[in-house]
Amino acid sequence: MEISRHTMTRPADDPWPGYLAGRGHPGARRIGAGVEGVVYRLGEGRIAKVWTGRPPSELTRRVYADLARHALPFATPEILAVEEHRGVTVTYERELPGTPLRADSAHEEYERELSVRLTDTLVSVLRGLASVPGTDAMRRLTVQGDDRPLWEGHDRFQDALAALVTRSVARHGAALAARVPGFEAGVARTLQALRSLPDGPVTVIHGDLVPPNIHVDGAGRPIAVLDFGFFTTAGDPAFDAAVTAAVCDMYGPHARRHTDGLTRLFARELGHAPATLTAYQAAYALTTYDLFGADDGDGHFRWCAEQLRHNDVFGAGSAG
């Protein structure tokens, strides 16, 4: 649950601080919110999250525990307790340290040249996550917008992702096709590319490593990674690198330049084939395009269409 994209003030009718006070946390203070709910600082290194979106499941807690078993150079979420109040899920969690690496590009214009501090941090986090083996709990997760565990019926991440592309395109693909020339042929090329990718390591995938989801200390070192869940699964670490390159700057005037530059950087520093990263970027656009809206009124929908029009594997780069 990302909390850094919004400036938070406590509404006069907010009932949750009173509820949390009654549960033994009299100093509860609202500190942020995201699409999934609202966050309150409790003190003593703990927070409470009041979920309005899909709450974390016992499976999510298992994934967090799987992550905690590895000596990563940064903290990851830990759910300490879960309860319900009037049908609303409340989780009590460890408060993660640090401050966001950067604000979201929807709210802060990124400069033409990304800083070495930012790019080094992204490489460090990707390298750390790629050291965590994928687990059964990770394979059983369902990504946002889908109705079944990603790996269900599949032995390879690449094939599971191709099946997800097929399901996602079946939802509202006609809306995307109206914005992207050669859509059906591009989907076919993407599916062929995914299924042709070789087997490789299977590690944890975060799936939403935008700068606000990485916290750094005063020296700029990454000390916490939060907001697992949007596209968290087990799979090829190249997928996380590809998505991170694409979503670091989604809406700024230099977004395409940044995506291209980060894609080249991650290929070089992390040893991923550039064509593999490009195929995964097409797959990400095809599987998330309608999660917030399925027309031009939604920024993420427009962004996905733009990604596909310029994606070499999808094949529509010269059209538009």
From TrEMBL:
Gene3D superfamilies xref list: 3.90.1200.10
Pfam families linked: APH
PROSITE patterns: PROTEIN_KINASE_DOM (PS50011)
Stretches that traverse the bilayer: none
Signal sequence residues: none
InterPro entries linked to this entry: AGP_Transferase, Aminoglycoside_PTrfase, Kinase-like_dom_sf, Prot_kinase_dom
Region Disordered, annotated ranges: 1-21
Domain annotation Protein kinase: ranges: 25-320
PANTHER family to which the protein is assigned, alphabetical: AMINOGLYCOSIDE PHOSPHOTRANSFERASE-RELATED-RELATED
Name of the protein in question: Protein kinase domain-containing protein
